[in-house]
Amino acid sequence: MKNKTIAYAPASIGNVSLGFDVLGAALEPVDGTALGDVVEVQQADAFALHVAGPFAHKLPADENTNIVTHCYEHFIEACVKYGHATHPLAMTLHKNLPIGSGLGSSASSIVAAFHALNAHFDSPFKQDELLHMMGELEGQISGSIHYDNVAPCYLGGMTLMTGQSSPVTVALPLMENWYWAICYSGISVSTSAARDILPKTVDLPDALTFGRQLGVFVHALYANNEQLAASVMQDVIAEPYRKSLLPGFDEARAYSMEHGALAFGISGSGPTVFAVCRDQAQAQHIAAWLDNNYKQNEDGFSHVCRIPQAGVQQQQG
C-alpha cells in the first residue's frame, strides 16, 4: 500500500455517432491541455472527500452524494467481500470536466477514483472486475449500466463493448491521421434526460441501418479505409431526437461538412459536438469556428484532439 496515489482519467466520446452505447473513444488535446479529472487518495484516520477544480462548484456540497464517495464505498465493500485488507482514505477530486457536457465527465471521475483506489491497495482487482464496478457506478448517474465512456477512459483508444462479462470491451484500430475538433457549448445536458427523450423502441429499418453501419465501420477500421469508415458515421438512433437539446447543432454540422469534415456528431448525450478531420489545420479551423459560433457562454471551450492509446494514468504525488 502506498501513502498517496494520484490518477488522471481523460475525457471521452460516447457512441461516436454510429455506436449507441457500444462504441467509445478517449480524447487528448494536441496542445497538451489535461482534459480530464484527477483523483488523489492517501491514508487517513477516517474517510473524507475534498473537491477542487474549475467545475467543483457545480457539484453538490454534500460529500455523501458525490460519485467519488460512492466509488470509495463500493470499492471497500468489494475488498471486504473478497478478503482484501483496507484502511480509511482521504480523497481529493479535481473536477476539471464540466458536468453534463457529453465528455464523459462522470466516467472520468469514476475511472480516476477506482484506478487510484486499486493502485493504492496494490491492485487487488483485475481489468474486467474494475470495469464492472465502473459500469455499475456510471449506471447510478445515467440510469443504466453502459461502458461507452468508462471503457475508453480507462483503457484509452477506441473501444467496442462486447456485451459479455469478460472481456467487457475490445480495442479497435485507429485512423492515424484523423483529428477530432470538439466543442463544448457551455450548457448542461443531463444524461438521464437525454435518454428519456429517445423512443422506447427502434423501427426495423433503423435497426438494420445501425447494425450495417457498425459492421462496416469496424471492417473499415481494420482495412484502414478512411472514406468508408467516415461514410457510415451517422447516428440513426439518438441524434434525430437529441439535437433538439443542442442550440445551433444543424448550423455547426453544415459549416463543418461544407469545410471538409469527414463526419460530424454529438459526443455522448451532448451538448459537446465533434468533427472528424483529415488533418490538424482543418481541425483547428473548424474548432475555431465552433468556438465562435456554437459555444453558448464562458463555460464553453473547444479543442483539437487525437485519440490516445493510453487511458487512465497514474501521476506522481
UniProtKB/TrEMBL annotation:
Superkingdom as given in the UniProt entry = Bacteria
GO CC list: cytoplasm
Residues in domain GHMP kinase N-terminal?
66-157
Cited Gene3D superfamilies: 3.30.230.10, GHMP kinase, C-terminal domain
Q: Which reaction does it catalyse?
A: L-homoserine + ATP = O-phospho-L-homoserine + ADP + H(+)
* InterPro entries according to UniProt: GHMP_kinase_C_dom (IPR013750), GHMP_kinase_C_sf (IPR036554), GHMP_kinase_N_dom (IPR006204), GHMP_knse_ATP-bd_CS (IPR006203), Homoserine_kinase (IPR000870), Ribosomal_Su5_D2-typ_SF (IPR020568), Ribsml_uS5_D2-typ_fold_subgr (IPR014721)
A GO MF term: homoserine kinase activity
Q: Where in the cell is it found?
A: Cytoplasm
Statement: the UniProt record of this protein carries the keyword Disulfide bond: no
Q: Which controlled-vocabulary keywords does the entry list?
A: Amino-acid biosynthesis, ATP-binding, Cytoplasm, Kinase, Nucleotide-binding, Threonine biosynthesis, Transferase
Describe the location of the GHMP kinase C-terminal domain by residue ranges.
220-295
Q: Which GO terms describe its biological process?
A: threonine biosynthetic process
Instruction: Indicate the principal place this protein occupies in or around the cell.
Output: cytoplasm
Give the family this protein belongs to, as stated in its UniProt record: Belongs to the GHMP kinase family. Homoserine kinase subfamily.
Protein name, UniProt field = Homoserine kinase
